[in-house]
């Protein structure tokens, strides 16, 4: 037990090993911990058979067993309707508009650190604890900063880049400052007697259990045949729905005519207006700058004027040096020191100052390198 204050902590327990160990560590630190499993599935009675998500009834049972071992109270809260509206419907709408969303960021922003946090605070809890790998640093002036996890290999700060100052003030990530491998986390779970020690990690999108994103979207948006064209507008093939493609995609294009140079082609643009997918060479994917909207700052916002940061563009991507400037408080203009590929509207760009997460914004448009420069 340290000199830190004893807090009333609500531990979000997904039924996986990370959230179970996080709850156990919070309890071991002397906090008054209550476990809660969020029922988010449209069909909460579904089972994990063949599934890779984290919202099945088995996950609820696993979370309850972990709470029993830790010795903390446990509840199941039904947030399925809120999840459907704020995460699933948003996901479908973004794809329908030709953008590529990240539902994990949306869930953290709208569910775990909004709906869940609001309910926790109303019930007298001080913090929400999760199994994310990130670190919250308390500054001398009382403000908080979000930093990368001690172990970069497990860092999840990218999907937490949407948290604002208020949310950070009530966030707890017990795994973030631990330099341990996932195998060691599992060993710790086993030592604690947690049944989930050997449970496989969830993958892909939690509400698409079989991993078939295109099939999931097709059921909701239907099929709509459209053209696949090259950069000159020449028709190369057809598709059943532009929503089934993402910028930078190479496989599954179903193009019968090979490129003149024999090299692979990639998705360069998705136009929902005319249901057209444009493909071309890898060099045409090079993005030199972007404009992002709906910025959210993790703690203090950046000072005015352009500044140098590093940026991360996907959950498991690397960092790249950028210059970024906020204009009119609404648009974030980002210029890359070197061109990057696979950047799509709808994705999040997360800015870092060293290990500190500055904030996040949603990519609206990109600027590509001219063909003459490639």
TrEMBL record:
Residues 154-156 are annotated as: Interaction with tRNA. It catalyses: S-sulfanyl-L-cysteinyl-[protein] + uridine(34) in tRNA + AH2 + ATP = 2-thiouridine(34) in tRNA + L-cysteinyl-[protein] + A + AMP + diphosphate + H(+). Its EC number is 2.8.1.13. The record marks 132, 347 as: Interaction with tRNA. It is found in: Cytoplasm. GO terms for molecular function: tRNA-uridine 2-sulfurtransferase activity. Pfam families: tRNA_Me_trans (PF03054), tRNA_Me_trans_C (PF20258), tRNA_Me_trans_M (PF20259). The active site is at residues 107, 206. Transmembrane segments: none annotated. Catalyzes the 2-thiolation of uridine at the wobble position (U34) of tRNA, leading to the formation of s(2)U34. This is tRNA-specific 2-thiouridylase MnmA. The lineage of its organism: Bacteria, Bacillati, Actinomycetota, Actinomycetes, Kitasatosporales.
């Amino acid at each position: 037990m340290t000199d830190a204050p004893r807090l009333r902590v609500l531990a979000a327990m997904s039924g996986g090993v990370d959230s179970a160990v996080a709850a156990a560590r919070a309890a071991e630190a002397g906090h008054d911990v209550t476990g809660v499993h969020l029922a988010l599935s449209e069909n909460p009675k579904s089972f994990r058979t063949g599934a890779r998500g984290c919202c099945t009834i088995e996950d609820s049972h696993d979370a309850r067993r972990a709470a029993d071992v830790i010795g903390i109270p446990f509840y199941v809260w039904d947030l399925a309707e809120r999840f459907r509206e704020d995460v699933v419907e948003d996901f479908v709408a973004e794809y329908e508009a030709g953008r590529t969303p990240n539902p994990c960021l949306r869930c953290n922003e709208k569910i775990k650190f909004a709906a869940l946090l609001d309910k926790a605070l109303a019930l007298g809890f001080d913090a929400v604890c999760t199994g994310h790998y990130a670190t919250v640093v308390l500054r001398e002036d009382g403000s908080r900063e979000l930093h990368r996890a001690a172990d970069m290999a497990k860092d999840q700060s990218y999907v937490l880049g949407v948290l604002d100052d208020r949310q950070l003030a009530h966030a707890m990530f017990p795994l973030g400052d631990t330099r341990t491998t996932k195998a060691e986390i599992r060993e710790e779970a086993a030592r604690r007697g947690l049944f989930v020690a050997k449970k496989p990690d969830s993958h892909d999108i939690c509400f698409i259990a079989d991993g078939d994103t295109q099939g999931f979207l097709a059921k909701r948006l239907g099929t709509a045949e459209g053209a696949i064209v090259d950069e000159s507008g020449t028709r190369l093939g057809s598709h059943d729905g532009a929503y089934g493609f993402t910028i930078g995609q190479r496989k599954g294009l179903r193009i019968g005519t090979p490129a003149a140079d024999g090299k692979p082609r990639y998705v360069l643009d998705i136009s929902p207006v005319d249901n057209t997918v444009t493909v071309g060479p890898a060099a045409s994917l090079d993005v030199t700058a972007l404009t992002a909207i709906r910025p959210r700052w993790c703690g203090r916002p950046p000072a005015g004027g352009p500044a140098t940061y590093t940026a991360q563009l996907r959950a498991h991507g690397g960092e790249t040096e950028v210059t970024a400037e906020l204009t009119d408080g609404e648009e974030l203009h980002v210029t890359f020191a070197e061109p990057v590929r696979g950047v799509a509207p709808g994705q999040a760009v997360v800015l870092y100052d060293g290990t500190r997460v500055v904030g996040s914004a949603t990519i609206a448009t990109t600027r590509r390198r001219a063909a003459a420069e490639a």
